[in-house]
Amino acid sequence: MVIGCGNLLRGDDGVGPVLVRHLWERGVPDGAKLVDGGTAGMDVAFQMRGAGRVVIIDAAATGSAPGTVFRVPGEEFAELPPLQGLHTHSFRWDHAIAFARWALAEDCPSDITVFLVEVAGVEMGAELSAPVAAAMEQVIDVVERDFLAPLRPAGHAAATVEFTADGYLRLDAALAAARFPSDAVTAVVRDGTFWLIPLRGPRSGGLLLKQRNPAGDRSVLVSELLRETSLQGVFQAFWDDDHAALRIPVSGDEERER
What we know:
Helix content is about 20%, strand content about 30%. By secondary structure, the protein is α+β, with helices and mostly antiparallel strands. Strands 10-8-9-14-13-6-7-12-11 form a nine-stranded antiparallel sheet. Strands 2-1-3-5-4 form a five-stranded mixed sheet, with helices on both faces. It folds into two domains: about 1-150, HybD-like (Rossmann fold); about 160-250, no CATH class. It comes from Mycolicibacterium poriferae. One of its GO terms (molecular function) is aspartic-type endopeptidase activity.
């Protein structure tokens, strides 16, 4: 479970919820859940019930340089903060961790990691500042690498795809989930090769992979790119790490399956 805490209306204080939205656009693997915790600390406590691992992201104001990222084990917040005068408006995520240990007992996760991003400003209505936006991308990369990537299906170097008679490119469910989790792509044909390139999410524009059948296969309309050629049938496809894209030779020496 990945929980982004903070106030979207107050500039850098919204880094947690904004980060969760970016992760959602990249695609959520089976076994993971994303939560916009907002400013409701008590809700965060109960959202954690039964989760195996929890990641919490929030803003910090420690006086450090804006954009500084702190990675803190949840054990650092094991002791319940003082409750005198505590009410729902002052119930923060650090209260949530300690409260969850008390209220959820055995259902409280034992593996909790907190990422704090130092703010530059929390003015009402402001966007994320440049240093905090850059730090958010760093945290996204770490969360993806350490927590989400192990949940994604393994992507094999070679696969097969199908160009259909009605102008679609079809990918099987495993290939789509492993290489195109956000369902947003762009495509280009160059020098006898069809390239399918994953995007971070629909906000990046591009084309959308749509569900083709109950098995989870995906298809994308590519007829606009194929006006000068007639592609139909099953082709070998190869994941190209250097270009982070699916390479589909459509002419040349590499074998086409029929």
